[in-house]
Amino acid sequence: MTRSDTARQLWSIALPAMLTNVATALFGLADMWAIGRLGDAPAQGAVELGAKFMLGLLNVFNFLRTSTVALTAQGSGRSDGWVQPQTLARAMTVAMGIAALLLLAMPWAISIGLDLLGATGPLRDDAQAYVAFRYWAGPLWLANCVLVGWLIGQRKVRYVLYIEIAANLVHIALDLLLVLVAHWGVAGVAAATVSSEALKFALLAAVVVREGAAREALTAIGRRSTWARADLMQLFALNRDLFARTLLLTAALLIFARSGAQAGPVTLAANGILFQLFMLATLLLDGFESAAQVLCGEALGAGARSRFTAAVRAALFWGGLTGLAVSCLYALGGAWLAAAFSTDPQVIAATRDYAVWLALLPLLGVVSFVLDGVFVGAGWTRAMLGTMAAAMALYLALLVGLRPLGNHGLWAAFAVLFAARAVGQGLVLPRLSRRSFSAS
């Protein structure tokens, strides 16, 4: 396979995934913009804090998506027709089990979570109203992780893109209707999210049913081979490492949000706007992570080391180039863009003060995003967890050491977290590659 063939395959997955992820990011941006039209910094801060709570609660289970992508792609590389329905059956069973536990934990999870985020006074009341409504979308979010992962693992990313766009348009329309017309405020933002998540599930399920995968997955549930000990242990090990790694990353995000909340509602609102714009860049660049997961998973399943190496190089090259472009765009217009998400003069001034970090983060983080895809696709989740733990330790040390710099110190520590992850993954990549393909 030539270099141009690899690049073409990469972009055939990455571009739809990038557009899908941008549509996903627009959910959060639409929420911040709609609530920002009210000119109420505490309400805007409450949405940011509530969104961080839900991110912390649900994002630790994102392994449902990533492991489904990896196992489906590896099965395609081995040309094993039963892997796809078996993977879907196992993953959806796990997702529904987690959903049941989350609903049982709801009465006390919300209170404890807001305590950990340092929410007090009117800010806490608004954040609690947001979370209490949005919490009910949790089971739908978990199921959608599995369905999206299964479709991406089969290179059916365009279906995901079309569905994400449709759900996003509905979400934005509901934000405008419920917040600005019906004046539901924070509750309106939460209701828009729940409704769009339900629509996404309905559309994804319809695609899976049309593809015949739903029937095959139901058949796979009754097959003894689906629940073979070796396959379950592989799934458990993969999900365990991904869960622990995501837990660390989510903890870093929650610490970031808590530190912003302690600085007051204006700083919290400004950080929330900048963070949503960073997430837009992250989800854009994560398209290369999705492509790396699929191409590296297929190459590993087929035992093709040259294909694997070519996929890694292509993902790093094109991902790095795109990250540089995004950083340049944010350097030129990031402050102006952030100011459009609030009418509060103090919040606007604060976003301008810290917009420099918005320009640096995409370039610093893109290598770690790409290598995450490589490591997940290859099944090197234990190594990915180890590099994340080391980066997290450095992040916590910098939070203390850079405290005199205030909010700039917080953003600097956050930036180093991503750079340190990339360095750690780059150091262990050659050894892992030699070990995985030693028999090739």
- How many runs of DSSP E, i.e. beta strands? 0
Average the pLDDT over all residues and give the rounded result.
86
Q: Termini distance?
A: 17 Å
Would you identify the regions where 5 or more consecutive residues have pLDDT less than 50? none
H/E series = HHHHHHHHHHHHHHH
Helix content: over 70%
Number of helices: 15
> Can you tell me the number of structural domains?
1
Based on the model shown, name its key terms.
440 residues, mainly alpha, 0% strand
Protein model, in words:
With 440 residues, the protein is an all-alpha fold. The chain has one domain (3-436). The protein is built from 15 helices and no strands. The chain has helices at residues 3-36, 41-58, 63-77, 83-116, 121-134, 138-153, 157-181, 186-210, 213-221, 229-262, 265-302, 305-339, 345-378, 381-401, 407-436. It is globular, with a radius of gyration of 21 Å. It starts with a helix and ends with a helix. The model has no long low-confidence stretch (mean pLDDT 86). This is Multidrug transporter MatE. InterPro entries: DinF-like, MATE_fam.
Task: Please specify the SSE layout and strand pairing.
Layout (H helix, E strand, L loop, with lengths): L2 H34 L4 H18 L4 H15 L5 H34 L4 H14 L3 H16 L3 H25 L4 H25 L2 H9 L7 H34 L2 H38 L2 H35 L5 H34 L2 H21 L5 H30 L4
Helix pairs in contact: 1-2, 1-7, 1-11, 1-12, 2-5, 2-10, 2-11, 3-4, 3-6, 3-10, 3-11, 4-6, 4-9, 5-8, 6-8, 7-8, 10-11, 10-14, 10-15, 11-12, 11-13, 12-13, 13-15, 14-15
